[in-house]
What does this fold into?
Amino acid sequence: MSQRFYSTQPIEGEAVVVDGPEAHHLLHVMRATAGTEVVLFDGHGAEYAARVSQTGRSEVRLDVLLRREVNRESPIALTLGVALPKGDRQRWLVEKATELGVTRLAPLITAHGVAQPETKTLDKLRRAVIEASKQCGRNRLMEIGEAETVEAFLQNTTADERLIAHPDPTSNVRPLLSGDVSTVVAAIGPEGGFSDEELQAAGAAGWTPVSLGPRILRVETAALSLAAIVGLTAWKA
Ligand code: SAM
It folds into this structure.
């Protein structure tokens, strides 16, 4: 498979100019020259066979040869509301959530949260989504929302199933996913867990508490377990 590159510009015409980190990757890592063939995607669902026509110091011009609509999204659209862990674990979580087909990740501000997500951090995580999508073949980018309070997230998010992960004995997640479920939203708490007030707010707003087994999972393990369960539930090879 040809190497994949992301175009920040929508690919519409017969040629496209790539700049920024993608041009750096093409020029200085792949050492692309005129004639090098790659696959481009712009996050809108298609991928494009393309050939380098011209290289500059910090940009690359490519001819678009062929457009293919290739859907590698999960049948169930999953939004994960996550109280992000600290440091490298954030990036790891975002990379794996992208691979597992999560549609949207909403960073949550919670009472016991350790990392209060800043704009600069979220921009870095959005770049991690692009890197993971290049690698895993996704043609739509997982969206990373702006940080929001868990209260706002619980009140304002709609879906066929709304699940809040909590270690106490609660519902098993799998039976909730049978039937006509096509949108799921799940909330995962911080290392210190959801506060009693947050759990009560979820109950009052009609969210279902779900268990992910008898062990206490780290935030990213809980988020990715849910992503794997939901993502593969309706998947037909
Ligand atoms: N002591 C905390 C508590 O009792 O909630 C542990 C928090 S855990 C490290 C971080 C988050 O992962 C939890 O808030 C929950 O959303 C999720 N989680 C971890 N283990 C889980 C399990 N076995 N079942 C459901 N959710 C779990």
Observations:
- The pocket of S-adenosylmethionine is lined by residues 165-167, 188-189, 191, 193-194, 211-213, 215-219, 222 (CB under 6 Å).
- The helical segments are 20-29, 88-99, 119-136, 150-156, 196-204, 219-233.
- The two ends are 20 Å apart (CA to CA).
- Residues 119-136 form the longest helix (18 residues).
